[in-house]
């Protein structure tokens, strides 16, 4: 099968012929139909997060089951599925206390002594986050996918695989936004737009979108923002505090920068909670004013929207099909696998929302 | 002989150790692979020399800033 292989950080990925192993007892071979290009892929490409190389990036996809391992009963050939990097073991402390997205059990990947799922001429290709979706086939653990309705368009379904689950999940699960809350979201890419949409669904009374690109702020309005602020003015915090007359109940950072994480905390009212979704580069420290804790301000991280994706993703599919989740607006372009480098590059400027790779069928 | 310590940048679990005690190691050589939140993270040497001691084994949990190996410098 063909895949976009990353051999060196900051170098373009090349389309190469890659060998994929046979499904183990609990593995599923998936033929992706669509794969979104997320900013997290770029963090690993540019080295702000290290990863073993060579690898095949991509972690936001939807496709069709091609073949299943002998112990798999959950799906069969032909089922439509969305993949998720939050593969869960189902029996560790985190899983059993309902925090499936924090499962760190190694059993969903192949142990180091076994043949790797992906290789080129005998050389291991490291599977990215147990998925590697910039490829014509994916071999994944059965706990890294969910079955979905067949009337769901695959390109929209792919977005649910990461950005929707991350953004909407951060609002619903990590933060638990209540109806009537005042919310601000900093960064209106695929993830931030999903958080805005989620806040609107949750019944927030005010949803303030902050970005530096006007077209993104327009998109934010289309998916549920009630107010927008262009951060180029240099005073996004001041503008939010003025607009809200004292700060937000909930803020979400969806960029991955120290400065905007600190702004998310500064935008809170007393008792408010800042949720950091963006991937801040490894080694970066975030600074807060200690006195703010007397006002019971809180700050927390969110991994993949604290999901229980086997439950969440089919609900998000229903939200889309019922007109509540505005995934059509979030796709700015459909591309071919060979154009993946251009799509990743485009994320740097912030001008466009999601690019979705459509695989030839 | 002067030594240096290779530290973990992140909290995670040791997945695979790629080199052994006594092996020569260069700046940027991969010493081991850590797994953290589903990521396979390489630990690269920051110095050149010979590996004196590897302080962790596959399956061990490691914290940010924890020493992973001691290198005898060239
Ligand atoms: N925590 C998780 O589980 C998780 C999951 C998915 C993605 N992420 C992370 O979320 C972040 C967002 O991902 P994405 O795919 O939506 O990214 P994106 O590149 O599509 O969007 C980022 C947006 O931020 C805007 N921006 C950049 N700098 C800004 C600034 N200083 N002030 C205001 N706006 C600014 C850009 O214009 C752009 O619209 C990334 O760091 C990504 O790695 C985290
Ligand atoms: Zn993502
Ligand atoms: Zn588990």
Number of domains of chain B: 1
The number of distinct helices of chain A, counting runs of at least 4 residues, comes to 10
Provide the helix percentage of chain B: under 10%
Average pLDDT value of chain B?
94
Order of helices and strands of chain B: EEEEEEEE
Shape of chain A: globular
Q: Largest sheet of chain B, order of strands side by side?
A: 1-8-6-3
Structural class of chain A: alpha/beta
The shape of chain B is: elongated
Instruction: Kindly provide the name of the CATH class of chain B.
Output: Mainly Beta
Oligomer: heterodimer
Structure in words:
- Chain A is of the alpha/beta class.
- Chain A has two domains: 2-147 and 327-358, Alpha-Beta Complex (Quinone Oxidoreductase, Chain A, domain 1), CATH 3.90.180; 168-302, NAD(P)-binding Rossmann-like Domain (Rossmann fold, 3-Layer(aba) Sandwich).
- Helix content of chain A is 28%, strand content 26%.
- Chain A is built from ten helices and 19 strands.
- Chain A has helices spanning 39-45, 93-96, 154-175, 190-202, 214-222, 236-244, 258-266, 309-321, 327-330, 340-349, and strands at 2-5, 14-17, 19-20, 27-37, 55-56, 61-68, 80-83, 118-120, 123-127, 138-141, 145-147, 182-186, 206-211, 227-230, 248-253, 268-276, 298-301, 331-335, 354-358.
- In chain A, strands 4, 6, 7, 10, 11, 18 and 19 form a seven-stranded mixed β-sheet that branches. Chain A has a six-stranded parallel β-sheet with strand order 14-13-12-15-16-17, sandwiched between helices.
- In chain A, a hairpin with an 8-residue loop joins strand 1 and strand 2.
- The longest helix of chain A is centred in the middle third of the chain and has 22 residues, at 154-175.
- Chain A is globular and about 60 Å long.
- The relative contact order of chain A is 0.16.
- Chain B has 74 residues and is mostly beta strands.
- Chain B has a single domain, classed as OB fold (Dihydrolipoamide Acetyltransferase, E2P) (Beta Barrel).
- Chain B is built from no helices and eight strands.
- Chain B has a four-stranded antiparallel β-sheet with strand order 1-8-6-3, with no helix packed on it. Chain B has a four-stranded antiparallel β-sheet with strand order 5-4-2-7, with no helix packed on it.
- At the A-B interface, loops of A face strand 2, strand 4 and strand 5 of B.
- Bound molecules: nicotinamide-adenine-dinucleotide and zinc ion (2 copies).
- Nicotinamide-adenine-dinucleotide binds at residues 38-40, 43, 162, 166, 186-192, 210-213, 216, 231, 254-257, 260, 277-279, 302-304, 347, 350 of chain A.
């Amino acid at each position: 099968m063909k895949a976009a292989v990353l051999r060196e950080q900051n170098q373009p990925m090349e389309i190469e012929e890659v060998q994929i192993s046979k499904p183990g007892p609990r593995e599923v071979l998936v033929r992706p139909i669509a794969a979104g290009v997320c900013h997290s892929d770029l963090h690993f490409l540019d080295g702000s997060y290290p990863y073993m190389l060579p690898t095949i990036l991509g972690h936001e996809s939807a496709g069709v089951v091609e073949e299943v391992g002998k112990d798999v009963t959950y799906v069969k050939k032909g089922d439509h599925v969305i993949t998720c990097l939050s593969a869960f073991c189902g029996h560790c402390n985190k899983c059993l206390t309902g925090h499936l997205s924090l499962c760190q059990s190694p059993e969903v990947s192949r142990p180091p002594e076994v043949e790797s799922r992906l290789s080129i001429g005998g050389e291991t290709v490291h599977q990215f986050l147990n998925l590697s979706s910039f490829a014509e086939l994916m071999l994944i653990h059965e706990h890294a996918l969910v079955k979905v309705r067949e009337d769901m368009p695959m390109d929209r379904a792919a977005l649910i695989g990461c950005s929707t689950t991350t953004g909407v999940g951060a609002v619903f699960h990590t933060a638990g936004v209540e109806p009537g809350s005042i919310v601000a979201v900093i960064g209106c890419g695929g993830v931030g737009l999903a958080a805005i949409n989620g806040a609107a669904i949750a019944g927030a009374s005010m949803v303030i979108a902050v970005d530096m690109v006007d077209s993104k702020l327009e998109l934010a309005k289309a998916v549920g923002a009630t107010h927008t602020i262009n951060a180029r003015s240099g005073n996004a915090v001041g503008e939010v505090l003025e607009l809200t007359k004292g700060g937000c109940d909930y803020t979400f950072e969806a960029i991955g920068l120290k400065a905007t994480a600190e702004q998310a905390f500064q935008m809170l009212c007393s008792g408010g909670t800042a949720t950091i979704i963006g991937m801040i580069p490894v080694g970066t420290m975030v600074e807060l004013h200690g006195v703010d804790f007397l006002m019971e301000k809180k700050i927390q991280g969110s991994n993949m929207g604290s999901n229980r994706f086997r439950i969440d993703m089919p609900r998000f599919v229903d939200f889309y099909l019922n007109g509540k989740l505005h995934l059509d607006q979030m796709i700015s372009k459909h591309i071919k696998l060979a154009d993946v480098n251009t799509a990743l590059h485009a994320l740097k400027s912030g001008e466009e929302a999601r690019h979705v790779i459509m695989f030839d069928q | 002989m002067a030594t240096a310590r290779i530290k973990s940048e992140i909290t995670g679990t040791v997945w695979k150790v790629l080199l052994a005690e006594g092996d020569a190691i260069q700046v940027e050589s991969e010493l081991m692979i850590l797994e953290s939140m589903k990521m396979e993270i390489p630990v690269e040497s920051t110095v050149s020399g010979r590996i004196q001691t590897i302080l962790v084994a596959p399956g061990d949990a490691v914290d940010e800033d924890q020493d992973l190996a001691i290198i005898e410098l060239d």
